[in-house]
Amino acid sequence: MKKLSKYPILLFLYAASALFVLSYCKNDKQQPVNEDLGSVKNQILKNNEDFEKQINELIQLISGNQDEKKLQEKFEQLRKTYKKMEWAVEYFLPHSARFINGPALPEIEMDEHTEIEPEGLQVLEEMLYPYDKANKEEIIRFLNKLINKSNTIKTNFQVITVSKDQVFDGLRLEVFRISSLGISGFDTPVSGTFLQEIPYALQGVQETLQQISTDQSKEKALKSIISEINSAIKVLKKNTDKNSFDYVNFIPDHFNRITSLLLEFKKQEKIPEVEVTTALNKNAATFFSKNAFNPNAFTPGKEFVFSDAKAALGQKLFNDKILSNDNNRSCATCHIPEKAFTDGLAKSMSLENSELARNAPSLNYAGFQHGQFWDMRKDDLEGQSADVISNKEEMHGNLEVIIAKINKDKAYQSEFKKIYHSPKTEVWQLQNVLASYIRSLAKFNSDFDEYMRGNKSAMTENQKRGFNLFVGKAQCAICHFIPLFNGTVPPTFKKTEQEVLGIAVNGENKAFDNDPGRGKFHETVAALQHSFKTPTLRNISKTGPYMHNGGYKTLKEVMNFYNKGGGKGMGFKVENQTLSDAPLELTNPEIDDIIEFMKALDDR
Known about the structure:
The chain is an all-alpha fold. Helix content is 47%, strand content 2%. A hairpin with a 4-residue loop joins strand 1 and strand 2.
């Protein structure tokens, strides 16, 4: 989890926002770009006015040396006010949103190899829970930065055009955001007040839906949505204890119903789609709908779009030793289907039968990540395939030589020609079919998926308890985001996170693993040293041994590591550890339940 890049000046934000709005309104025949919903903007501006007022009140309380409890109460009020307008800030001003309520970790400028200071509500939370008077001036400094962000919101929403299709799209994304980041406590990792905040975010959604509704939906979908939101809020107010909340039933019984009804509202109001390619399909009723996700949101360009024909051809080549230098190894050698496309070894073996540096990651759901390999050195699956094929230790192939072989193979050449309509197969086409096959490996048919689709007998009682612990007490879902259970951040899924866990060489946790991870490519960036991509937990029971080094033989060893606070908790000096070093205090039966839940993530 990281902070956004550079803090843009106001003029840039205005220009960027205008471009953002225009890019989100391609269907202007049905919904004119210049249709401006003034009432919606006025509500956003009113919430922002309250937000700025409460920031100033908190500054006064801190300046007046008020006690910790009063400061925390005012801060929690401030957060709740932001939640009412979160949908709008996240949608129209995503860069500002990152500085207002992003993780309290530095944002990395990858191209420039630099770090940007974190700021915003999460930084303030860390300084207020608990409060140390020694940090008084620093807190005021960050609060003044927050006032600057509030001014950015004001300036932008006074001038930009806000249309009905955009507003609906933003509201829908907000409910999905609450269903993943909100319900896991992603943005309140210290105070843990997220269950108290969700009602305010839902109220913001409800109030705005009422503003954009017409008679077409008021007595139909809108009425049902309001009823469901009120029902959800009632449950949330009844129990705000994150460790005992019933997440496993709340999500399908409330969030899924709301997101499904939103599609009915859209249909009844005849709201056109915002025509951009997104990871979450526009017609997905819930996170758990079949075909909810669009693999093309993760491809390098239009010519790389997924098709069944590409995947079928890619499967043949994936299992063909023609891709290696001496025709003695295929991709399937190290990525075995029965093992969720891993090899079951701590570290994969080279062509010379010696250990490679890292564990072979699963290819299941790899298509839903921005960054491939443990160190994320390639942006997409096309780049991954070229890297593996040409690696001297892995396949030692030459892409040009392989293409020459394929062009001499009549069967392969015929299939490539049918797909790409070119006289000769090209390197990018080979990469694309292999990547397409890997993109086809996301099945979304686990017992957990079935449960979330309404089959309440799909998971055992142990697994249901395990999920509640996974989201609540164990805080696993603040890094392994629902529903992909990897580090690709919902609801836009435009970014995949890396984390610094402080991994040991093995499950005994006695010696630190010095692998620099992503830091190898950014040697001057302290935050990236020993950082690794957050992989999916889907099919995790099939992919042992675990971690980038394969040093943890069982999921129990992995859970014990997390339970003690990661590397810092083990006594290692990991100054940049992103994992909390606070012990989770999970009991052995609780750990067993979490492991049982993870088995429910296995595809059938």
